[in-house]
Design goal:
By secondary structure, the chain is mainly alpha-helical. The chain is built from three helices and no strands.
């Protein structure tokens, strides 16, 4: 019996979500609608001549792992001959 409870306990949130979806209630739907309305309202307020045009920036490229190591080791002189 305890093995069944230990198996079922982590699955309870999934079963609860499945039950609510089968009953036709979509959790979080209202929050998504409110958030999308807030984002849309913020975009509408910011349009117009009051905003400054953005100046184009130069592209930025981050150095990757192998290139980063190569560049850090490139300034070091070779070992002295013994």
């Amino acid at each position: 019996m305890t093995e069944f409870v230990a198996f079922l306990l982590p699955a309870l949130p999934l079963l609860a979500l499945l039950l609510t979806l089968l009953l036709g209630h979509y959790p979080g739907c209202e929050a998504i609608v409110r958030l999308s309305e807030r984002i849309a309202a913020g975009r509408r307020q910011g349009t117009g001549a009051s905003r400054r045009p953005r100046t184009p920036r130069a592209p930025f490229f981050a150095r990757g792992g192998g290139l980063l190591l190569a560049l850090s080791l490139s300034g070091r002189a070779p070992p002295a001959a013994a």
